[in-house]
Amino acid sequence: MYSKPISVLYNNKHSRKLLAIMLLANIGFITPVFSQSAVKPAVDDSQLPAQSAQLNGYLGMKLDAAYQNRILAQDDNRLVAPFRNRTEDHLWQTEFWGKWFTSAVQAYSYLPEKRLGTVLDKTVPLLLNTQTPDGYIGNYADKNRLEQWDIWGQKYTLLGLLAYYDLKHDMQTLKAARRMADYLINELALRKALIVQQGNYYGMAATSILKPVVMLYARTNEKKYLDFAEEIVRQWELPVGPQLITKANVDVGKRFPFPASDEWPKQGQKAYEMMSCYDGLLDLYRLTGKETYKTAVEKTWQHIQDHEINITGSGSASECWYEGKALQQFVTKHANETCVTVTWLTLSAQLLQLTGKAQYADAIERSYYNALLGATTPDGSNWGMYTPAMGIRSLGSNQCGMGLNCCVANGPRGLFTIPPLAVMSKKNGLAVNFFADGIYKIKTSDKEIATLIQQTDYPVSGKVIMQLQLPAAKEFAVSIRIPVWSAHTSLMVNGQPVTVDKAGDYVSITRKWTSGDKVELVLDMSGRIERIEGQPAYLAILRGPLVLARDLRMAGHVDIDETITPVLTKEGTVPMDVIKQGVQSNAWIAVTIPCLVGSWRLGEDAKPVNLTFCNFSSAGSTFSPDSRYRIWFPQMVGANWGG
User: Fold this and answer.
1) CA distance 564 to 576
2) Which residues fall within 8 angstroms of residue 447, CB to CB, at 6 or more apart?
3) Residue 536, Cβ neighbours under 10 Å: how many?
4) Using one digit for the tens of pLDDT, what is the confidence trace for 279-302?
5) Where does residue 24 rank: exposed (0-12), middle (13-18), buried (19+ CB within 10 A)?
């Protein structure tokens, strides 16, 4: 069990000192569009990020590993070098600095260590020194500017600069960001060029710069940035554009014909770039209140959820939407790109913050615990580019001669989304979205700071103890998400039961809360089956938010490709026993499940065999053939015919 007693967590000297530093600095975790706003938003968010969070247990270990071994280990000089050269004509080197830097700001906001702060303060001037007199920051040769991935790279540079401005209120950084955006606006006008025709994928790569453009308007109140943002959206709907508004009623995998392989830049189903555009559109909705923007994002999100996102919480083949949910049991080329996973998390987090709906938290939880954690190496130093449902995990290639690839740079940005979302403030109280051992500081409606302490080893077990620390007794609502998979849930406040009406929603408890009040939640961790019908049918096994896998390291005498069927209880659940953590080949969670094995076994051999499964993110964690794994198991054809 990773969790510590509540008294230790709250009274630990280092923890209190750290929390005090973070509180005084009033540091936010994600870069909300209005964190330094000069413009009053037209639409308020339903939930707002925690003031601070400190996670312990397994997730805390993962965050610490990425912090030390990936973010701090990055050579920022290597990432800045292409900005000095400016000789490129088609590659995407400049995205790496922005991705790494925004993840570094997230990490520093989570844990403001002096060492990382020094890195942040050092690298920004290095980048700003590459800005040309006309305002350009990038690596493309003069004759090739705006082509291919140039504007895409400018987007990530702007996101990095604006993240630093929000963190340090540095006006020189904001000035450089404005000069960058002004250069792009002026250059497009000078060339009489449509931004939607620059770059790849129906202009989605280039026009995803919408997000930092909206952020610039929010921070400066300069109307030219709002006008440019609206112009981007207008151009989306041109015949040459991706038509992200008008095609919101069309499944994302069917919006355009699939091009020939030699015309790949014309791909209209490119998942990462599409969601990046919708992410910016939600920011524009907050500013303008135009319901068509929000509706387009919500409809598209639902299409993705219904037709593309698979059991692990990710999707895509060759980085594109392809109606993949119905095909997830098969071997897929370049499945579940980590950049797709991160952007799906980001888009879902935007919608959770905006609407407060539990369905978005359910989607985040599944994606985070399975696809995202499954993509990172155990020490947090590296990330796999693709995370298939079966086979061997492998690290991505070195892209653009930069010593890393897009997913290595992007993975930590997804990892650090959870701390500020786990417990969020609401107009009438607070919302507990995710369950992770730790301490969370939330600003209440009257500007007081409430502390919520979670003690849990979730999802090893389903028990979560929450304790409130308040400056004074106060009436407000504590809304607790009941995951959609928890069929039987127990909830008590100070030992008194609270009715849980249904899963997949929040239970809101309004009362006068006092310091020391305790909430005890017990979620249903019964094993369950997900099936895909066909000839043959396939099944997978889940426990809580976790997908379970068979890994070659713990297969025993039954090969992982053998046909297996779990023996269900009379209630239809999958019985399983949890093995002590760390025993089975470094798996976080391992369980044994009684299964019928094989199509040829008769008599005594037909009795159930106890097989070992582990959580999907631990399966394949050596990134080598010794940890080959699978999560979908084909069922015998003719199994119900008798005989």
Assistant:
1) 15
2) none
3) 16
4) 999 999 999 999 999 999 999 999
5) exposed
Rounded Cα distance between 531 and 146, Å, is 47
Rounded Cα gap, residues 169 and 28, in angstroms: 13
- C-alpha distances (whole Å) from 404 to each of 85, 96, 99, 409, 456 are 19, 8, 12, 7, 36
CA atoms within 13 A on the CB side of 27: 25
CA R_g for the chain: 25
Beta bridge partners of 25: none
Alpha-helical runs (H) found in 169-290:
171-191, 204-207, 210-220, 223-236, 271-288
Comparing C-alpha atoms, which of 373, 407, 371, 411 is closest to residue 387?
A: 371
Do strands 629-630 and 546-551 pair parallel, antiparallel, or not at all (unpaired)?
antiparallel
Q: Is 8 helix (H, G, I), strand (E, B) or coil?
A: helix
Residue written as tokens 């639409």? 43
Q: Which two tokens stand for residue 479?
A: 């809304």
Task: Write out pLDDT tens, residues 310-346.
Answer: 999 999 999 999 999 999 999 999 999 999 999 999 9
Instruction: Give the residue among 640, 635, 639 at the shortest CA–CA distance from 534.
Output: 635
Domains and CATH numbers, the chain: 6-423 (1.50.10.20), 532-634 (no CATH)
Residues near 595 by beta carbon (within 8 Å), at least 6 away in sequence: 564, 565, 566, 567, 608, 609, 610, 611
d(CA 469, CA 284): 37
The contacts of residue 457 (CB under 8 Å, 6+ apart) are 1, 2, 3, 57, 437, 463
Return all residues near 252 (Cβ < 8 A) that are at least 6 apart: 269, 271, 274, 300, 303, 304, 307, 308, 321
Are 140 and 150 in contact, with CB atoms under 8 Å apart?
Answer: yes
* Residue 583 pLDDT greater than 80, yes or no: no
| pLDDT 10s digits, 148-194 | 999 999 999 999 999 999 999 999 999 999 999 999 999 999 999 99
C-alpha separations of 279 from 210, 254, 329, 358 in Å: 9, 20, 29, 19
Long-range contacts of 31-36 (CB under 8 A, 24+ apart): 31/102, 31/105, 31/159, 31/162, 31/163, 31/166, 31/215, 32/353, 33/211, 33/214, 33/215, 33/218, 33/283, 33/286, 33/287, 34/218, 34/286, 35/166, 36/165, 36/166, 36/169, 36/218, 36/219
Dist CA 473 CA 400 (whole Å): 57
Q: Give Dmax over CA atoms of the chain in angstroms.
A: 82
Distance CA 75, CA 306 (A): 40
Question: What's the distance, CA 72 to chain centroid?
Answer: 21
Q: Which two tokens stand for residue 375?
A: 């993509």
